Amino acid sequence: MSTKRHFSFTTTSIPKKALPPEPDSKAKDIIYWDDDRDSPPGFGLRVGKAREGGRITRTFVVQRDLPGGKTKRVSLGRWLDDISLDDARTEARKIRDDLKAGRDPQAKPAGGTTLRDAFVRHVQTMKVRRKQPRSISDAEYDAKHYWGRYLDRELHTFTRVELFDIHMKMSDKEVHGPSAADRACRLFRAAWRNMMLLHETLPDSPTRGIISNGHSEERKPIAWSVFPEFWATIEREVKNPVRADLVRMLCLTGLRSLDCRSIVWSDIAGLDSDTPTLHRPNPKGGPKAAFTIPLSAPVARILRRRRDENSVLFPNSAFVFPTIGRDGKVTHVHNCEEDALRGFGYTPHIARHTFASATAEAGLSVVAQKALLNHRSKDITEHYQKLSMEFLRGEAEKVARFLLGKAKAKAEAA
Q1: Which of 205, 211, 108 is nearest to 158 (CA)?
Q2: Per-residue pLDDT band at 97 (split at 50, 70, 90)
Q3: Higher confidence at residue 328 or residue 400?
Q4: Widest CA span of the chain, in angstroms?
C-alpha cells in the first residue's frame, strides 16, 4: 500500500493511491491531499476502513483555519456516490471563501432562533439601554400586532421576496396602512440586527429589499396666519389650566411630548432666578442623550404659575403637569392631544415643528437650533462647538419673542 498522503487526484489515481488503513491499524481513516494545481489548498479525500464486502468509502473534504485560528474541516460528499471530483473542487473553493470570512457552512442558521426569540431579545436590549418605557411597550405591542402569525417561524426561513410582499400587504390601508407597514418593518429589522450580533451565520436582514413608504402625510407647522387664533383658542377652549399650560410649554420649548409631560420639579433649577434651566435625564435616545436647556422668561412664568396653582389643585405633587390616574393616584398627563386645536393642525409633534420653524425664522444658527431641539449633529465642526448656557438663553428668548409676536400676545400673557 502506498503511504504517500499527497498526490494529484484523478479518476484513475484515486482508486490506486487513496487506500484505506490496514485492517489491523488503529486508525479509523486516512486523509489524502490533492496536489493538483487546479485544486484549492486543503482539499482532500478521507478514506475509511473497508466495509463488509470490501467496499471502500472515500469522502471529499476541505479544511481551512477560521479567523480566530481554529481549523474547520467540512465534508463535501462521497466520491462517485454523492459528488464528482470536478464538482468537489468547485464546492471546496466556495467553502474556503466562507471559512475565510468566518462563516461556518455547516452551522444551522441562527441556531433555530425564531422571530419571537428575536423580539424578546430586542426588548431585553431596549431595557438594558434604558429606553423609554413607552418605546418598550410599543415594541412589545407591535411585535404581537403586526407579526403575531409569524412569531414561531425560524429567522433563517424569511426571504427578501417574502418581506417585500408582507410590507406591500401591510401597506394597504384596509390592512394596516403605509406608515404602520414601515413601522412594523423597522421593528423587524432592529430585532434581526440584534440577533446578527449573536449568530454569525445569520445573513443581512431580508428587509433590505423593502422600499419605505415614507411619511404618508406631510407634517406642516402651524401656519403663522392662524397662529393668533390658535393661541387665543388655547385660552378660550382648553378649560383645564394644566393642559392649557402644557400646550403653551410645547410651543415655546419645542420639547417632545413625553419630555414635556413627565417634567418633575427637581428637573428645574433656578426658577425664581434670571437663569432658570430644565434638565431632561432620559429623553429619546436614553440617558446618553440627556440634555439641559435654558428656559425663556415666558416659559418660566408658565412654570411658576403651575407651581402656585398645583399647590392648591395637586398638593405635594412632584409633577409639573399632574393629573389623576385611573387608579386614583396623581401622575403626569398622559397625552397632549386637544380636540379644540385640531383644526389648526395641532399635534404635540407639530408644536415641535412649529418651534423648529421659529428658530430658523428668528435667525438662530443651525448649531443653536440643534442644541435647543436636542438634535444630534452629524457635522464634525458642529460637533466640536459647545455653546454656553448664557448664549443659548439669549437664543431661547429670541424664539419666545418671535412666537409670541406671531401669536400677537404679550409676553406676560404666556
Answers
A1: 205
A2: confident
A3: 400
A4: 105
